[in-house]
Amino acid sequence: MNDTEYVNPIQLAQQNVEEANRQLAEAEKHFRAGDITEARLEQLRELKDIAVADLARVIKEN
Question: Is the pTM above the cut of 0.85?
Answer without folding.
Answer: yes
